[in-house]
Amino acid sequence: MLAIAVAAGLLIGLSLGALGGGGSVLAVPVLVYGLGQSAAQATTGSLVVVGITSLAGAITAYRSGNVLLTRGIVFGIVAIGGAAAGAKASGLVSEPVLLAAFAALLLAVAGVMTARQFRSRRGQRAALKEGHAADPIISFSPSFACHCARALKVLATATAVGLLTGFLGVGGGFLVVPALVLALGLPMASAAGTSLVVITITSASALVVRAGTGTHPSWDLVALLTAVAVLGGWAGARLTTRTDTSKLQAAFTVLLVLVAGYTAWRALPALT
Questions:
Q1: How far are the Cα atoms of 12, 20, 160, 168, 201 from residue 84, in angstroms, in the given order?
Q2: What integer pLDDT is reported at residue 197 of this predicted model?
Q3: Ramachandran region, residue 145 (left: φ > 0; alpha: ψ -120 to 50; beta: rest)
Q4: Tens of pLDDT along 132-174?
Q5: Which ranges constitute the DSSP H helices of 129-245?
Q6: What span, in angstroms and rounded, lies between the C-alpha atoms of 117 and 106?
Q7: φ, ψ for residue 114 (rounded to 5)?
């Protein structure tokens, strides 16, 4: 059990730090199938792992100059409503439904990460032209102006991220990073770092809502997983400045598909 927690924590932290998301979706399957927690306990404990690891990673990324703090805070605040709603809704469904939904999410994450891998450099440059990091969505000087299409894209994505965070105990970085690139025009390195700020805020808000539900995970296991994930996140954040992470992303995508298959295999029989 100790070995599982250490290995999983390193992988979760490495992915969060290097890719800005993805690793958090492993926390729930690890807590359920590897460490013997219920689905409710796992989704609550996962918020602690994800939130603290993201905070540590955000600090490291900020020191490296890869975080646009104001944009991350604003995006996170917009997502709080969705996180609170998702946390409330999670208590209304059965454990098999929660795990089946998680398996579907894993496949969705793998699909998004695969699409990101196959996006050409030309396509990335075109995407970055949709917006510029220095351009505000709303401005009041010298006159009022609103880039409403971008504002709606940010609102929709932030709400979806919040819902996923609250309902399934994940960070949602796989959605935040593309949103920050396409809607706010952030460079990929800045988007990965800034997404950690968003994940920290949404995880904390969802955890506050869940605090009154009476669900208590095994805190010693959560603490161990978190401590190791923080170390992995620190290493992952430094990898972004030294290494091409495409190979790591490809390997991680394969792992997500395998974990999704196993989660679905365990959860679907209970639904029938």
A1: 24, 22, 12, 12, 12
A2: 92
A3: beta
A4: 554 555 554 555 555 677 778 788 888 888 898 888 887 777 7
A5: 148-168, 173-182, 188-210, 219-239
A6: 17
A7: -65, -45
- Spatial contact of 186 and 218, defined as CB atoms under 8 Å apart: no
Distance CA 133, CA 116 (A): 20
Quick check: 218 and 35 in contact, CB under 8 A? Answer: yes
Q: Which helix (H) or strand (E) holds 72?
A: helix 69-90
What's residue 129's pLDDT? Answer: 46
At 170-211, the pLDDT tens digits run 777 777 777 787 767 778 778 888 888 998 998 899 888 888
* Whole-number Å distance between alpha carbons of 29 and 89: 19
Report d(CA 207, CA 165) in Å as an integer: 9
**What is the C-alpha to C-alpha distance for residues 105 and 46, in angstroms, rounded to an integer?**
15
Alpha carbon distance 27, 169 (integer Å): 9
Residue 44, SS3 per DSSP: helix
SS3 state at 138: strand
Whether omega before 136 lies within 30 degrees of 0, making that bond cis, reads no
At which residue do the structure tokens 């995880």 appear? Answer: 203
- The residues with which 139 forms a beta bridge, in sequence order, are 145
Distance CA 138, CA 146 (A): 5
Task: List average pLDDT for each run of 10 residues in the chain, which is 272 residues long.
Answer: 82 73 75 86 87 85 88 90 90 86 83 69 46 51 60 83 85 75 76 87 88 80 88 74 67 80 82 68
Tokens of 196: 């950690």
Give the Å distances, CA to CA, from 138 to 123, 130, 135, 142, 150: 26, 16, 9, 12, 10
Helix (H, G, I), strand (E, B), or coil: what is residue 218?
coil
